[in-house]
Amino acid sequence: MDKAVYKRVLLKLSGEVLMGKSSYGIDHDAVSNIAGEIKDVVELGIQLGVVVGGGNIFRGFEADQRGIDRTSADYMGMLSTVINSLALQSALEQLDLVTRVQSAIEMNRVAEPFIQRRAVRHLEKGRVVIFAGGTGNPYFTTDTAATLRAIEIKADVIIKATKVDGIYDKDPVKYKDAKMFKNITYHDVLTKHLKVMDATAISLCRENNLPIIVFNLQKAGNIKRVICGRPIGTIVRG
Fold this sequence. Notes:
Blueprint: E1 8-13, H1 28-42, E2 47-52, H2 60-65, H3 70-93, E3 99-103, E4 112-113, H4 116-124, E5 128-132, H5 142-152, E6 157-162, E7 167-168, E8 180-181, E9 183-185, H6 186-191, H7 199-207, E10 212-216, H8 222-227, E11 234-237
Parallel strand pairs: 1-2, 1-6, 2-5, 3-4, 3-5, 6-10, 9-11
Antiparallel strand pairs: 7-8, 10-11
């Protein structure tokens, strides 16, 4: 029988994984598949927090390059994460998982405000907590938001779902000779300028000794494999 090696986990999803095969927006089947995988790991008895990006709807950084004020663009991106969080919450609740969305931007009609003690209490009761709205501040990515929330809820690990098998020395989509790391340090990620998470997120993880596992979400069952300690993806640690 599969057994989790972590007690409390922060799952970071990009907004793009919700698109499925579409080029924009939210694909019902993609969200349902992710919800099913989340249910499988929650049934192992772990406490799970989730942070979803908003890139499938709006990218603040790209909008800034097109002439929209960066602060306004980032807030628009944060609102996109709320939309994605509500979509994921709906899919999880259809599978009878008790779920709470907590937003860094107050919008009391659709989500709770983020309160650290309340989030931990939800997790202790077995509820999945989806953290929306980024950090609530412009100029910070959802990777940084995920790291911040993981530290605040005292997660054992951040697991970051991607479209590739792990962290490579260069883009594996463009370069066939790209080599994947099984283990790498925070320092090497920063000095090699590897595009895993932004530097702020990596530095926060290093300062708090919080490991990161980067893995391929497109292989069914990988979330469960990672949480059960299988040698999947790349581990970033001290």
